[in-house]
């Protein structure tokens, strides 16, 4: 299966709302993983993580109530899937698609150890089982397809979540979003943070798409 066909397949699934509602769980898991990793790297105490049936999530952490550590942790969620997708694309471009699947497996196991609700734990258990099966039983060509599909899902799904963030803020006046929390923490308006998230995710999509689609 060629790279353009895999791209078109995932793009259709991300655009079509019924399939996106299911695929969004993957992007949400990486989003929460981004918060968790940033919390650990900035010295905050990581608490329970929850992944909900409606594809929302929550990562709790404790530490100073102000400062760069808090802001970096809050800001890490929306860029995380795009950056992970770009990293996956770079590995695929170098001829290491199996490394993408192993990295996803390690990340899923690490996240599962911090998840504290049953739905989130079962969701990650299914992901771990699928990734184990892919790494053990699929051919090298099929593993390459899986790596491409995962990379495209993260690259294409990340901008859609930012678009959904802004749409939700506009229609529901939600002041609990990551962008609104950052506005309170930094005094930089929320729409600036949304624009920054959009720029990062679209930039990663452009760079990752170039790596995955350019002729070998």
From TrEMBL:
Key word Lipid metabolism present: no
One protein family per Pfam: Peptidase_M50B
Domain of life the protein comes from: Bacteria
Keywords: Membrane, Transmembrane, Transmembrane helix
Transmembrane segment boundaries: 95-113, 120-139, 145-163, 190-213
InterPro entries: Peptidase_M50B-like
Name the UniProt record assigns to this protein: M50 family metallopeptidase
């Amino acid at each position: 299966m060629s790279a353009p066909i895999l791209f078109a397949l995932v793009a259709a699934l991300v655009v079509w709302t019924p399939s996106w509602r299911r695929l969004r769980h993957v992007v949400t898991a990486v989003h929460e993983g981004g918060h968790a990793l940033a919390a650990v790297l900035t010295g905050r105490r990581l608490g329970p993580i929850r992944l909900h049936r409606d594809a929302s999530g929550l990562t709790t952490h404790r530490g100073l109530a102000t400062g760069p550590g808090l802001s970096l942790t809050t800001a890490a969620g929306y860029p995380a899937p795009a950056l992970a997708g770009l990293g996956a694309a770079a590995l695929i471009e170098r001829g290491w698609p199996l490394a993408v699947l192993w990295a996803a497996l390690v990340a899923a196991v690490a996240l599962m150890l911090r998840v504290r609700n049953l739905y989130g734990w079962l969701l990650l258990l299914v992901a771990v089982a699928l990734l184990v099966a892919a790494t053990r039983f699929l051919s090298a060509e099929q593993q390459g397809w899986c790596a491409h599909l995962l990379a495209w899902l993260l690259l294409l799904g990340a901008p859609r979540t930012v678009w959904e963030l802004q749409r939700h803020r506009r229609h529901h006046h939600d002041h609990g979003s990551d962008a609104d929390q950052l506005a309170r923490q930094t005094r930089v308006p929320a729409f600036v943070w949304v624009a920054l998230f959009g720029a990062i995710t679209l930039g990663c999509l452009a760079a990752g798409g170039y790596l995955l689609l350019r002729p070998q």
